[in-house]
Amino acid sequence: MYNSIAPISLDDVNAHIEDAQRTFNSGIWSKAPAITRSKVLSRLARILEERVPEIAQLESLQTGRTIREMNAQLGRLPDWLDYYAALLRTRHDFIAPTQGKLLNYVQRVPLGVVAQITPFNHPLLIALKKIAPALAAGNSVIVMPSEQAPLTVLEFAKMAADAGVPSGVLSVIPGFGHTVGKAIVSHPYIRKVDVTAGTKTGRALGSIVGSNLAAYTAELGGKAPILIFNDADLDSAVNGTAFASFVASGQTCVSGTRIIVQNQIYETFMEKFISKVQSIRARMGNPLNLKSTMGSIISLSQLERIEAMVGRTKGRIIVGGRRMTGVSDLDGFDFSGGSFFPPTVVTDISLDDELWQEEVFGPVVVVKKFTDESEGITLANACKYGLGAGIWTTDLSKGHRIAAEIEAGLCWVNTHHRNDPSSPWGGMKESGIGRENGLEAFEAYTQSKSTIVNVDTVEATRRADDWFAEGTEVRRYG
């Protein structure tokens, strides 16, 4: 399908953005009736639905993620298109209760040309979470996918054209962040930038976006705590923690990377958890094998970064910790031909250790013990990030109480990494600003336009609105 993807020139970047602006100004999409945009999004959902098996295989090939994961994840993606198609049919603008004989109607109108920069870890999922509300709102959309995983986003753009999205409304521009990405977000036509990236990148882009007085949404780094209380159902907590920690080979911003276990169950939990981890490791193989449990790291450079971070820790490595070589016990797959790192568990960790504080973006977790609720909450919040968090307890009163104290934009109780187009997704602290999903994302891709109409009679208007009339009669100001 693709032999190679060449980054485009900076002149081409400008040409794409200028075309997107012309298309926006034409009104072919930006001023199309909501029902028209809704029907196109619904058609696009059905096209994507039919191609999920094919796209899942492409996603697995370009990322190294297991085909089992990709089948499950991509099967959900039409939901985002259906959600925003339905929103366009059901949402309402409103009339503001302005004083006097005035009709003040407030509409949400599109921003213009918007830019989206998406990562390698969930290439099409994260792109679609951004594209769907942006298109629904009537914007022209420029997407720069990760140079490490652009293929499925490029394919999606073709599907969008087949569904009826006009030319110039959705453009996918492959390239490198430091050149193409910088050129996109720096362009004065760009009215919003939406990025998923590391916190360092988010800060750098934010300074550029701010100088252009454009809107900004950023989903950045994470270091999710998983709090497991004495009363948790242990089997569920072990299974849920393993999923939180090692799905996507730990390459997700909400990975459960800090496992915080209450003292009375610590030993039993660790015994069961290590057994689960060893089972995951034993069943790793060819990512295209449906029985394979965990895939590869995205690149050799990222593998080397993970190795270096684990190598520097002063904690105790219980299992894992070194890149994988040799052949799979599952299917004979040769791990030395790729960038594979096993699920890794580290204990006896200090709060100032790099593995506690910094995002690894790999299948590495640290485990720490706590005694009471107060200590557990303190440990959970002892990090600069605040994207996701998990709580395991059979006492739902406690679950609600602890969730209220956790400094994270997403907090799961007795589950993890649940995602839905209706549910806002975003972080606190250094994990970013703004939200994906739901009505909040749609409104972030629009701006309010307030129209105030005088509905009083001509005679009354002449009396009331002649501010500079002779005399001292009090007249309304504002």
Automatic annotation (TrEMBL):
Gene3D superfamilies: Aldehyde Dehydrogenase, Chain A, domain 1 (3.40.605.10), Aldehyde Dehydrogenase, Chain A, domain 2 (3.40.309.10). Pfam families: Aldedh. Residues 9-450 form the Aldehyde dehydrogenase domain. SUPFAM superfamilies: ALDH-like. The active site is at 219. Coiled coil: none annotated. Keywords: Oxidoreductase. It comes from the Eukaryota. Belongs to the aldehyde dehydrogenase family. PANTHER family: ALDEHYDE DEHYDROGENASE-RELATED. This is Aldehyde dehydrogenase domain-containing protein. It comes from Lentinula boryana. The lineage of its organism: Eukaryota, Fungi, Dikarya, Basidiomycota, Agaricomycotina.
